[in-house]
UniProtKB/TrEMBL annotation:
It comes from the Bacteria. InterPro entries: Acyl_CoA_acyltransferase, GNAT_dom. It catalyses: glycyl-tRNA(Gly) + acetyl-CoA = N-acetylglycyl-tRNA(Gly) + CoA + H(+). This is Toxin-antitoxin system, toxin component, GNAT family. Keywords: Acyltransferase, Repressor, Toxin-antitoxin system, Transferase. SUPFAM superfamilies: Acyl-CoA N-acyltransferases (Nat). Coiled coil: none annotated. Pfam families: Acetyltransf_1. Belongs to the acetyltransferase family. GNAT subfamily. Residues 13-120 form the N-acetyltransferase domain. One of its GO terms (molecular function) is acyltransferase activity, transferring groups other than amino-acyl groups.
Length: 134
């Protein structure tokens, strides 16, 4: 399913400036993983207290829209490396414009645990929406 998203949607979104997709390839130019970032906002009711303090409604965020690793690269820390890259890119943007957090919609409980392990917090309204303060 995520492969289909990369093939069908990523280029269109990039051309329309809706999101930017970052792709990791191996030496044979095979896609090993990718993620995308876009601008967004979230209602204060979806944000934990510390993140919403003194913030407008809605709160400006960067959305980590997709993060996918090829099956052959599982267990090689590629997902962790891409997440770190996404956080660094997001922090750079946050230092230049007003952005409070990196937001992700976890697709399943395993993805949720992955993001929790790296410092994301669950929304008080939807536990599959997670945020990392930038």
């Amino acid at each position: 399913m995520l492969d289909q998203w990369l093939q069908r949607t990523a280029l269109k979104n990039q051309q329309n400036n809706a999101s930017k997709t970052f792709v990791v390839c191996d030496e044979n130019k095979q896609v090993m993983g990718f993620y995308c970032l876009s601008a967004g906002s979230v209602s204060r009711q979806f944000v934990a207290g510390a993140l919403r303090r003194n913030m407008p409604d809605p709160i400006p965020v960067i959305i980590l829209g997709r993060l996918s690793v090829d099956c052959s690269a599982l267990g090689k820390q590629l997902g962790v490396s891409m997440l770190k890259d996404a956080v660094l890119k997001s922090k750079t943007v946050a230092n230049q414009i007003g952005v409070k957090a990196l937001l992700v919609h976890a697709l399943n409980p395993q993805a949720k645990q992955f993001y929790l392990k790296y410092g994301f917090s669950c929304s008080p309204i939807d536990e599959m929406v997670l945020m990392l303060k930038l």
